[in-house]
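Lab notebook, bench 4. The sequencing result for the construct came back, and we need a structural model before the next group meeting so we can plan mutations. Quick request posted to the team channel:

Model the 3D structure of this chain.
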Amino acid sequence: MNTLELIDVFLNYLSVERGLAQNTVVAYKRDLLRYDRFLRSTNINEANKVGKEDVRSYLFYQKEKELASTSIARSLVAIRLFHRFLLREKLSLKDPTDVIDSPKLWKKIPNVLSFAEIEKLLSAPNIRNKKGIRDKAILETMYAAGLRVSELSGLKVEDVNLNAGFVRCLGKGNKERVVPIGKIAVSALRKYQSDSRPKFIKKKDSKFLFLNHSGFRISRVYIWKLIKAYARQARIKNSVKPHILRHSFATHLLERGADLRSVQEMLGHANISTTQIYTHIDRDRLKTIHKTFHPRP
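Done. Here's the predicted structure in token form:
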């Protein structure tokens, strides 16, 4: 039997013997038919002829189509169950999926700004007015401490110790961490608190550090729009989203010799494997430098 016929046998097994819901069977069918079309495009018509590299090629083909890793992982579940069924029923001699990692484990290397681009972005606000002073403090704090947007939005006045030079923030899972900030960020925050924030408070009192024109806590959406606007003003060509300041914070620290554990602690990552993705960026940068400047690239 060819692969398409074996898919029908497998789907019948799922429906009749396993008693899976019809929607689940339909989802498996959709994923496996796409898989079969790809195999036929590479002149593979029999499941027994599929090798590990063929499965990997299909996964990377989906990745090139910009499917989410969760969608690719779901299709791999269908493919894996299909090949295991064929092996168990002696309809195939091998399982080409037995050592293939789930695409859920794939990590997308984040975009970062160069230090020159960061300088342009942080210099974009007009500090001759209250909004510019506030926005300058926002950008400097995000980059200085590697904060998430939600963490910055949730900062309270009491969370900032300018004399000691650190901010205290509440991260994912309500985990609190303390992150140092440099002199430039401290200076921007002092100016904001003395010259700008009182003008935003108006008649209201707020415990939150960064306020909008109505005197309320600044929202995550507003910060996102603010960063996009200043990126355009600074003529930065790359797509700039709020998280890019956090990514750049981590990457620039590692590039300058910071150890991974310290960066993990400052970012508030529970697992160091999450932080390790930034080492890939640094390796890519080193490869580019080597290729550019080495006499025998």
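The mean pLDDT is 87.
Will bring this to the meeting.
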